[in-house]
Records
---
Amino acid sequence: MASRFPILCICLSPFSLSMFCVSVCQLMQRSCRQVTLLAAPSRYWSSIPVAPPSLQPRLLLFLSQRFHDIETILSWSSWFKNRGLRQKNFFYGYTQQNYGDNIAAAYYILSLKGGFRFAGQSEWFRSDRRGKFNWDFMNHRDTSIEEVDVSNTLINYTGLENLVKQRGLCTLSVSGCAEVDDWFLSRLHIFQDTLEELDISNCPRISVGGLAALQKLRGLRRLDVSSLPRLQNPGLVAILLEEMLPHCHVTAIGYDHSLIYSHTQTDG
Amino acid sequence: CSALRPNRNNNIFLNTDLENQFKAFREKAADAMPGSDWTPFEKNRSLPPERADIVIVGGGVVGWSIAYWLKQKEMIRDGVRVLVVERDPTYSQASTVLSAGGIRQQFSLPENIHLSMISADFMRNINEHLSVLNEDPVDLQFNHSGYLFLASEKVAHIMEENYRTQRYAGAKVSLLSTTQLKEKCPWINTDGVVLASYGLENEGWFDPWMLLNAFRRKAISMGVYQCFGEVTGFRYTTNTMTTAEGDTVDFRRIKYANVQMPNSLEYQPVECAIVVNAAGAFSGKVAEMMGIGLGLKDTIAGIPLPVEPRKRFIYVVHCPNGPGLDTPFLVDYSGVYFRREGLGGNYIAGMSPEEEEEPETNNLEVDHQFFQKIWPHLAHRVPAFECLKVTSAWAGFYDYNTFDQNGIVGMHPLVNNMFFATGFSGHGLQHSPAVGRAMAELILDGGFKTLDLSAFSFKRIMTKEPMLERNIV
């Protein structure tokens, strides 16, 4: 834990400006107290043994534990990242008011760099790698969205508010989304009558508690829970999911079901 | 000043007067440098500081939540010095860690519903609030399985009224008929059940120890002082005033809180401005130290704090053919409840005993015979539970409010600087983040700002108007 008093590091020349930074840091500390996220969100994989991190994160960790000002600067960077995430998932109230729920949901999905398909049509609207998309979707004000693919985006619980009015949603894919967690899954009960296909593979924050919330999706026919890093007993969980949702086909690949772990100690 | 006179043995360091003189010197130095803790002499490090602004008696989840929110809301850095005093470092008897850990919005009072909703929102964003730089993220292991309440014919109308209140307050609850219930949970025997109420969101259970440690770690990183010791008494000043009828009323103001070290006679009087009583099941004893309830019978001074410990048992059972991953926290109309624990076919079950059969509260021994009363109800409701095996059990205290089973939040009319946040009767854990914020607003802002908990004040106890919660477990 860093010391409570700002310590001036005289020995290291790159930080000779810290005397000036200290007073600035103390002023900014108040505003940044609100949100301090971790500097290392990849810790969610911590149950799997990884190689020791490289030099730069270790050096930063050492410095932030000794110097209060470094700690403050690191907490600013995580605050900015969090702010970026919140801006991506704003509630599109203005669009909803002026253009209707469907257009608002469509605009939100496209700005997240995802894709969707309207009900009754066969072509998908997607945005390309740089974020540009076709504005033709504005012509279909009254068609609801049937399939949504927001894999590998930054969608989270607050962003889902933009999609809750789409009561005819059949397919949802949030594969590989880093911010989808158990609370997101518990909110999916809104689509309980119509959702047929759900893909939540490769989401690092989902655990068994969230999968238990999928019991409300009675219309689900295809569920993909592959490669969830936080699942301790993937085989057992897949069986329990199949029991819980009898009409649903559960896909759970990408797990090592072998009885002997590859990193065991040599003897007991 | 008196010189250091050598004693008869010609060795000044055996002079007992030396200790007193050092103490006098320390006090003089402290008076010369007000507000500073610095002392040139080494003190016992486990003692609390000599001065603190706010002393929180009780280091459970409510106490630490209040400490965190006080630090969160202070306007300037180190604006308030908060000290949390906890009697037991192992938390062996604390209600927080012995709790079943459930959170639900299905209450009958709107205040309780709002408290649960705010707490669920807090827990959803817990890493925004309680994460510490370079430490592991907080993982509450929240199971979103929801609460399922069953109602017989006699109480179905109460459930419908509660449903209306809950929906009006914004809780996401749904009512299920018997056929819908059978479809959703085929393992239930719906005999005797007329209506069921199921929470769709923000309901389930979590790990209370993780929440407590998250609050504690974050509060300590923000500068809250922690002390393991027992508050054995207070030093207060009394202001006696007479009413128009000629009765005398004593208004007390706490000046010092005596914190005694564990297994020792050593104590430290902590000079404090505000004392918060968050001692849970033992809040009644702390209130008695201030003389609350020890006055004449018909006066306000004679009304004690109506919080007493009540022992509740939880039994861990194993049933291989029991309900699977979709088991909600089921609460039957007979008072029996159970929930799934883990993935291996284990469940925890319990029941609130009748008023006449309340067990003794001087220890935490489990009465295994009590399970024989729970089992028939369990087996009747879930036929698979006819063949189960009790693997383990534990007991914990509820901070039971004998008056109306709802929390007491606010100041006492006769003790000017003692605040209460206790008496939640089994809901303290699920309401702790919201109650902590409300108390911090009350102390620092002078009134409730985001959620108005004035309905939970001491006033209802003085005017003898109970606010009964119909849906307690």
---
Amino acid sequence: MLESQVKTCPEEKRFPLKIVATEIEETEIEFQRSFIINIIPKIDWGVLRGALEEMGLSEKYEIGSKVPENYEEDETFLQLAHHILLEIEIITGKFVCRGTGREFPIENKIANMLLTSEELN
Amino acid sequence: MSRPEKENPPEIYYNNEEAKKYARNTRIIKIQTKMTERSLQLLNIPEDPPENIELAPILEKIEDKLSKIETKNTTENESTELESEGSYDSDSPFEDEQNSEDEELLALEQELESLKNRRKSSFILDLGCGSGLSGQVLTQNGHKWVGIDISESMLDIAVQRNTIGDKILLDMGQGLPFRTGVFDGAIAISSLQWLCYSNKKTEIPFKRLSTFFSSLYKCLSRDTRAIFQFYPESPDQIEMITTAATKSGFTGGLVVDYPESTRAKKFFLTLFSSTTIKQVPKGLGGGENLSQKDVVQYVVEDKYNKKYQNNQRKKRNWKPRKKSRQWILRKKERQRKQGHKVRPDSKFTGRKRKDRW
């Protein structure tokens, strides 16, 4: 859900940021149904799919191009969504703005999105 | 006690040393935890309907315990009858087992109660998350969060402590890079006051605050709240903050807990991102929702703040005064950006000229 803040970047190209992941980690997090059910409507599913592809995980986790109807009752789908959204972490890599090519490095799981003063004006 | 935000900007103040000290200091941990819990309260997240919570495993455990205790009770009754002749050994291992079973049962029942009272698991933005102290409280309460901070050292510690939340190195005053309506709420523990000082010549705090608040308004979903626990230095500062917030579309007010006590007094700026007018919650310890005037009174009472006395005039002094040196420097910077030929800055720029008339 991050979008590029670089001021020279045109509005349409700000979201989504391109993901380049060099090191990924999969952790275990407690599953909470209500949270997953709530957050799915906020996610752009097509973009999520694209992100998985960029990270090289699209074969491991196959997700359709749309969220299934009645997803609240589909337990397997909820578990899959939980895993993709919460349990996959990028340790090293970068985010790239599609509009300007500006790279935001990710190191030690921390994304550095600080902008220089020129980029703000 | 001097204010840390006057010494250095936060990314310099919280270097590796300071960050380590901060994360290990038990007093700070205790206070920050308490303030986070109070902020969560003020966030007023709707309750989770019971069918969403997995109560079954806890209920099973409780039933297990109850049956174990019942069997123990019957066997114990038999044995005490036999022992009534001799001395009653109160340290018998039997009783200890009984007590620990009871304790465990009590703990399970408490857990069940807290699960029932649980708030809906929400997606929260932790502004100025630092070493993850506040984030851990959020996780304990079942929420997921994204934490931002300007100090790399503090965030490193948050990663070390295995806090469950995404961390981003970011300057709040530059604006938040999140999509519209992503978050169900936002909290900021002891971080807002850092935005009120700017060490760069070209950035004025009011502009940074405005940029911050408008980007925050955008990334919060409708009818949610943002709670800021902070340490205001003066009524002017409070006014600057609330003006920037209202400009960006927020409504709300300042909640003060324990206004009579110097030690326990805490300020929580409570902002609503909704179009309907909502009632600001009451502060603890007899505090009430304060109008601007009342806040002024409280801040003066315990600090005898010289700065307040100097700023008694109701001028808006968070923008540089026209024709002042600050203003001139900013104007020259603007002109340079527009491509005009501008004289270099020096110690003589905007100096006080001799009064000729």
---
Amino acid sequence: MFRNQYDTDVTTWSPTGRLFQVEYAMEAVKQGSAAIGLRSRSHVVLACVNKAQSELSSHQRKIFKVDDHIGVAIAGLTADGRVLSRYMRSESINHSFTYESPLPVGRLVVHLADKAQVCTQRSWKRPYGVGLLVGGLDESGAHLYYNCPSGNYFEYQAFAIGSRSQAAKTYLERRFESFGDSSREDLIKDAILAVRETLQGETLKSSLCTVAILGVDEPFHFLDQEAIQKVIDTFEKVPEEEEGEDEAEAGAAQPAEQGGAGAGDVAPMEM
Amino acid sequence: MTFTIPIENGDAVKIAEAESQRTLYPYVTGTSIVAIKYKDGVLMASDMGGSYGSTLRYKNIERMKAIGKHSLLGASGEISDFQEILRYLDELTLNDNMWDDGNSLGPKEIHNYLTRVMYNRRNKFNPLWNTLVLGGVKNGKSYLGMVSMIGVSFEDDHVATGFGNHLARPILRDEWHADLSFEDGVKLLEKCMRVLLYRDRSAINKLQIAKITEEGVTVSQPYSLKTFWEFSSFHNPTASAEGSW
């Protein structure tokens, strides 16, 4: 994308009907480190890559519990993500207080999307620079949604956002048809394998990723490092064949994204 | 409460006006509601009377209404406040329907919403002068609860408001059991309503029974209970109490 005379204000349309500021906000999401979500009929798994500013610091938190039945993974400006998570928690708890009943996730994402839309139509605001993968339950089972800075939201069987997410998406596209009936364990395994795709050859260790799960009879919680390492161990034992094919595929699909996503180009506020 | 109203301060005048519009006493009131859980859902009974103090002024008031797809609300107390509550719930269920997303408010949610409304009004010293009974069925589960005008709220297998608390509850405690058939449930409610008819002066002999099951709500046509007034003690009521009437 190149600078042009229509991209200064979020309230300026381009002649081709685009709002460049909103699109730039979506670029910020692509710069953040990867977040992945997948769902079966009864469970949703969220996973992300742990990136730290430097070896000295701890990694940024990218997955948040919104309620026992809703969790969110973010990519992009984490500060914006934190603020939106707080909003989601607030909406959820207010609903629980008034109705003694969990807020259906489908309604929460609409509230979130409407909130994002406001920022695309006020000259004194800017769009949120964060993409949210919202996983949660409602009366019809488990759902996964992606909320975009543009104010759009979509429901997915599986999705990945952030840098090098294309590799994960390719992996998920191959498998998604079986996710609906997946067992809880298979779903977790697929999530971690998808995370591995985004690491581009770096060895997958449990310290590099965070995984959280929620389900129809399972409140939202994080998996601890041991549990993650155990899953990694089940497939890292056959490294040569699997990694060989995947790397070749991933390499082919990557050129477009690699442009701005090199480690040195990431702005400090984005994770 | 008296206080001087400074003319410059417009807000004080507004507050004074608001004060005089707080609920102080009810005017047109409905008497007891009795409700029980049974095999397929919930049964609720009420008469159709609206009293204006001691005058039985209105004899065709429906004090039970369906709310949304899954709930039935019965109210005793101030009828206009009941109508106000129906307006709130109408708005609530309308917004819920507009979502059109496969989710809907069940009886538990409506009961809790009403509890919040009643309690908040009580805190402002401006109560809705009602005791509400909320029954419903959703996803095969029956629900029956009650909220009072001060926000006291609970669930139970059988509830009664007003005089029903004193006259119907003992009968229900003795004779209610789980999985009553529809016929037995109606018989039990009629037994309670008959006692109320004899002993509650604001009750009239024109009642409705409402049923809510997974399929929905049906409110019966109004009908009367058979009563017996030939008890020997009714013939000479003052025989054992000289000077009374």
